[in-house]
Amino acid sequence: MRIFAIGRNYVEHIRELNNERPEEPVIFTKPDTALLRNKQPFYYPGFSHDIHHEVELVLRIGKNGKNIPDQHALSYIEAIGIGIDFTARDLQQKAKEKGLPWDIAKGFDGSAPVSDVFWPAAHFPDLSNINFSLQVDGQTKQQGNTGLMIFSFAYIISYLSGFFTLRQGDLIFTGTPKGVGPVIRGNVLHAFIEDEKLLEIEIR
Ligand code: MG
User: Fold this and answer.
1) How far is the CA of 62 from the centre of ligand 1 (A)?
2) CA-based torsion, 124, 78, 65, 108: positive or negative
3) 7 alpha carbon to ligand 1 midpoint, in Å?
4) Does domain 3-202 have CATH number 3.90.850.10?
5) What is the pLDDT of residues 131-150, one digit of tens each?
6) What is the 3-state secondary structure (H, E, C) of the chain?
7) 65-79 mean pLDDT
8) DSSP-derived secondary structure letter, 135
9) Where are the domains of the chain?
10) Distance between CA 98 and CA 76 in Å, rounded?
11) Interval between CA 106 and ligand 1 midpoint (Å)
12) How many angstroms does the Cα of residue 6 sit away from the middle of ligand 1?
C-alpha cells in the first residue's frame, strides 16, 4: 500500500500560502509508517515547532491500473474516506526556499491519520459536490467542497497512473481547502464528511 498526496488543489489554499497555481497536479508520497488510525494519538515531534493540519478527502483504490484514461478513472475508486495531511510547515518552508524535496516535512511518522470508515464511491450522488470539514477543539477551522478542486478525482487518478502503477489499497490524499493552521498539544481534531464525524485525533 502506498500513500500518494496532491498539493495545491484548492485555489484559496494556494492563496493563503502564497503559492503558484500549478499547471499539473503537485505530487508527493508518504511512507506507510505515516499512517495513523482513528483515535490513535498524534505525538508532536521534536523536530518541528509548526505542525499544521490539512484536512483532505482520501481515495482508496480498488484495482490495479497503469496509464488509466480519464474516462475510466472513477471506476478505480473503491471508497472515499477522510484524512489529515500533517505538515511540518517550518521544515517545508526551508525545503521550498532551497528547492529541496518535502519528504521529512510531509512523510514523518504519524503524518497521515486516516479514517477507519470509508464510504463506497456509489454512496455519493455527486463526486464533484462533497462537503468535508475539520474542527479543532469543537471549532470549525477548515471547510471544503470537491467542486472547488482544480484537478478532479478522475484527472488525479489518470495523471498519477501515468507515473506510478496504482494498486488495490493505495490511498490518495486529494488536497486541502483553505484554513490550514497550527496544532498544539492537547488539541482534539475531528474530521467530517458531510455531517458524519469519521476521524478523531488528539495531539499529545
Ligand atoms: Mg495537503
Assistant:
1) 22
2) positive
3) 5
4) yes
5) 999 999 999 999 999 999 99
6) CCEEEEECCEHHHHHHCCCCCCCCCEEEEECHHHEEECCCCECCCCCCCCEEECEEEEEEECCCECCCCHHHHHHHEEEEEEEECCEEHHHHHHHHHHCCCCHHHHCCCCCEEECCCCEEHHHCCCCCCCEEEEEECCEEEEEEEHHHECCCHHHHHHHHHCCCCECCCCEEECCCCCCCEECCCCCEEEEEECCEEEEEEEEC
7) 98
8) E
9) 3-202
10) 36
11) 8
12) 6
Phi, psi of 192 (to 5 degrees): -125, 145
| Stated pTM of the model | 0.97
Quote the cell numbers at residue 49.
515547532
Give 150 Cα–ligand 1 centroid separation in angstroms.
14
What whole-number percentage of the chain has pLDDT above 70?
Answer: 100
Residue 28: all three cell numbers together:
508527493
The Å distance, Cα 4 to ligand 1 centre, comes to 10
pLDDT of 183 over the 90 cut: yes
Which residues lie at CB < 5 A from ion ligand 1?
Answer: 54, 85, 176
pLDDT at 152: 96
Cα of 125 vs centre of ligand 1, distance in Å, is 25
Q: What is the rounded CA–CA span in Å between residue 201 and residue 204?
A: 10
Q: Provide mean pLDDT across the span 85-97.
A: 97
